[in-house]
Amino acid sequence: MLASLFLYLIDVLKPLSDWFSNNSIVINFIKAYNEPMSGKPGPALKGGAAFDSYYRDLYGSRWAPLREALMFPAGTVAYEEGLIKPYHLDRASVLAAKTLRLPELGLILDACAAPGGKTLVLASQLAKGATILANELSSERRRRLVDVLDEHLSVESRKKITVSGFDLGKAGGKRTELSRFSSILLDAPCSAEAHVIKSFQALAEWTPSRPKNLAVRQWALLSSAFLLLKSGGSLVYATCSLDPMENDGVVSRLIEKYQGEAILDKPDFEEGEKTAFGRMILPDSVGGMGPMYVARIHKKGLPL
Question: Is 240 noted as a catalytic residue in this protein?
Answer without folding.
Answer: yes
